[in-house]
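Record 1 of the preview.
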Amino acid sequence: MRVTKIIREYVEKTINAKLTYGAPTQEYREATAKMVDLCEDVNNKVVEYATKLCEEASAQLPEGFYIKLNNKYPVTQTSYNSPMQIAAGQHEREVREKRKQAIESILVELELGATKADLERLITEAIA
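->
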């Protein structure tokens, strides 16, 4: 007998129907499905608890500082317009300007013939 496509399909269908995978495979599939469902429940509970922890931690931080969840992981965030950041930026600008002026003043004095003792005095005055 020549094996045609129709005969091949019939043989495969008949054999597959007679030789089933049975209970062990079905039990394994059910256990796997249960595991996946429980894992999803655990993940939801973890996210809910982590969100609560992030909110509690953020409440302890200054305005404009946050701890939030990003892809189920806690990450830190700051606001570019927080009062603390604005004050820190202003302070840094003032210090940079003061440094620049002190350095220029000391260099001018050195150019005009200041001594090492004068240099130390000028540095001490600039820092104060």
